[in-house]
Design a protein that fits this description.
By secondary structure, this protein is an alpha/beta fold. The protein has helices at about 5-10, 35-45, 65-85, 100-115, 135-145, 195-205; strands at about 20-25, 30-35, 50-55, 60-65, 90-95, 120-125, 150-160, 165-170. The longest helix is centred in the middle third of the chain and has 18 residues, at about 65-85.
Length: about 200
């Protein structure tokens, strides 16, 4: 049988052991009451005394139907969970001397990840003596961030962690509008240079 963790979070009725409580509820006069008096008020309404703020001084209790209270709490948790967005982090790694072909291939993937709303964690991995090229790795990561400025913003500048230099990019909230195609200007090429004989004929005419 599955344990009801939410139910166990609250003390109710006889499980409330303090001497006095601050009472709240729809049909009660708010104020500080002895626990016995608060229990009597709840019982007279056919309801439960539920401790909702145990760390307050004195603890706050509500006169309510405990099952209805639990239902409302579960509903609220479900709504909050639905609103929370799961952050996806995609990793892309480079060598300190990555060539342009590999760089552009990974840049294309990073653009796609950011457009989908994922974060991009890019890093340069240094093997052995390649750590001597850490400045080159930093330049590469800054170039990477600059090439992605229309898709994401830098959340963390390049930082060296062990053998990896890392940069973190997060997607821009507003999708970037597609750039409008620029009209193609018609380029008029200069006439092909004439030979000396053709030029002389033209001058005679």
């Amino acid at each position: 049988m599955k344990k009801d963790n939410l139910k166990d979070q609250y003390r109710i009725n006889d499980r409330i052991r303090v001497r006095e409580v601050r009472l709240v509820g729809d049909d009660v006069e708010p104020g500080v009451y002895s626990t016995q008096e608060a229990l009597r008020i709840a019982e007279s309404q056919g309801l439960d005394l539920v401790e909702i703020s145990p760390n307050a001084a004195p603890p706050v209790c509500r006169v309510t139907d405990f099952q209805k209270f639990l239902y409302q709490q579960r509903k609220r948790q479900k709504e909050q969970k639905a609103k929370s967005v799961k952050v996806v982090v995609k990793e892309i790694w480079f060598g300190p001397q990555t060539d342009d072909h590999d760089y552009n291939f990974k840049l294309k993937h990073a653009k796609g990840f950011l457009e989908e709303g994922a974060k991009v964690k890019a890093y340069v991995f240094f093997k052995g003596r390649s750590i001597l090229f850490k400045e080159q790795g930093e330049v590469l990561l800054l170039r990477f961030a600059n090439d992605l400025e229309d898709y994401g913003k830098v959340e963390q500048l390049p930082v060296l962690e062990g053998k990896r230099m890392i940069i973190m990019l997060s997607p821009k909230k507003a999708p970037t509008a597609a750039a409008k195609p620029q009209p193609v200007k018609k380029i008029v090429l200069p006439p092909k240079p004439k030979t000396e004989q053709e030029a002389e004929k033209t001058e005679e005419q």
